Please model this.
Amino acid sequence: LLKSSIGFLCFSLCASSVYILNDILDLKADRAHPLKRNRPFAAGDLSIATGLILVPLLLVPSFAAAAILSSSFFLILGLYYCLTLGYSLYLKRVALLDVSTLSLLYTIRLFAGSALTEVTISQWLLAFSMFLFFSLAMVKRSSELYNAKNRQQSLASGRGYLVSDHEQLATLGTASGYCA
Model:
C-alpha cells in the first residue's frame, strides 16, 4: 500500500510537470479556445516563468522517489514521461495516433502499478483496458469536434482532425467500448 501510494504520487508529479509544459506550449491555441482560455497560463494567472520553474521542481522528486521504489517502475515512469512529452510536442497533431497514444498512456499506468505491487496483469484486464481507454480517448476527441462544430469551426484547434470527422470518431469510440 505504501509503495502504491508513493507510486501514485510519483505519477501525479510527473504528469503535472508535463501537463504544465504542454499548457505553456499550447498557449496560443488555448487562448483562442472558449474553455481552455481559462487555464492558469492562458488566462495569465500564472506566468510562463513560474511554469518553467515548476516543471523540474515536480519532475525531479518524481523520478528520485521512483528510483528508490523500483528500477522497473522508474523505467516505466520514464517511458510514460517520454511518450507524454512526445504527445505534447507532436503526436497530438496526428489524427488517430493522438488517441492511440492517450490510450497507451493510460495502459502504461497499469504496468507501473503492477511493477510496484508485483500483481500480474491478466490478459483479460489488459485487453479490456486497452479497448476501454481507446474508447475514452475517442469520446474525448469526438466531444471536442462536436463542440467545434457548434462554434461553426471546420478544424479542431491544434489537432489533425476536421469537424466532419466527428461521426467516424464517435463510431470508432463506440465500437471500441463494445469490444471492451
In short: Residues 123-150 form the longest helix (28 residues). The chain has a mean pLDDT of 92.
